[in-house]
Amino acid sequence: MAFASSRSGDPLPLASLHQLIDLAAGRPPQERQRLLLGVADLYHSVGGQADAPPALTEVFIAMVRAAEQDIRRVLAERLADAAWAPADLMRLLAADAIEIARPVIAASPLLMDADLLALLQDASLEHQVQVALRPDLGPGPARVILDRGEPAVMTALAVNRTARLEARDMTRLVDKARSIAALRAPLTRHPQLSEDQALRLYAWVGDALRQAISQRFSLDASALATAVAAAAQEAAGITPDEAAARLAAKLHAAGQLRPSTLMRALREEKLDLFIHALARLSRLETEALRRALRGDSARPLFLACAAAGLDRAAFPALLREVRQLNHGLPHDPDGEAWRPAERSATQAAYEFRLLTAPEDGPSV
């Protein structure tokens, strides 16, 4: 007979462990519960998942599978935050009935992002909501929740103030609030809500939430009016490009258009607004800027940003954001060939026009 040693040095007869399953089967529920909790204590005492014999792990999980729902619920509550429990067992309990799964999904350190993604894909809506509420939820599962677009799950994500949302995913959640009213109140109070996102949210909420946003961010009245006007334009059926052009013009007229607006627009995945804001700041033509974005060199885009007053040190980060939204363009086969010597805004604009002028157009 095979034996393994416990921490106390006493041998564990592994072959006889399987008799516990037969023993449990013939006992009343209360005795089965005590026996299963005793096996859990034994598993912990011999070192948990790090040191427990494989046969003990197998028996432990088999006994849980055979236990009644009430017993599994008691065990799930006891093991919810245990780091020593078998990972396979915690995955089993997380996929069980929601009354059993809830404490495990909420607290188990053994559930990895892959396990949470599997629950989002295959489990019930209640399980998905619990995943969205999980403390310190990672950006991967959060993004999948947004991709799936289930309102109840996204609302739970908005309520979860500890979820690690990336800035562009937070913007996506704010954009969803336009059509999903349940998102608005929790997003208004969300600690990751930025001022730009608050401006966008402001246009879609009622008076009480508008007051809360205004008090929290001390937003400028002209910026609030611009946000409301932009939302009205979208509702009126104006194309995204037209809405972006009008928003850039309103921001410019209100003195709110600055080089930093360019990066904010990209991080909020608003490439049209980036183009029109860049055109306003640089005094360059939008069509020439669109040609620059389709080009085989990043140099014209750099020159346009220099003409707009963007700090040259900020351009590499801006270029990465542009490429993420623009199918990897503009290409830059020569590495950092876009790095010319220091130029004034006027010089940069002049060189930009030289580089982007159509072949059949007038000379600059």
TrEMBL record:
On the tree of life, the source organism's domain of life is Bacteria
**Protein's name in the database:** DUF2336 domain-containing protein
> What is the organism field in this record?
Brevundimonas olei
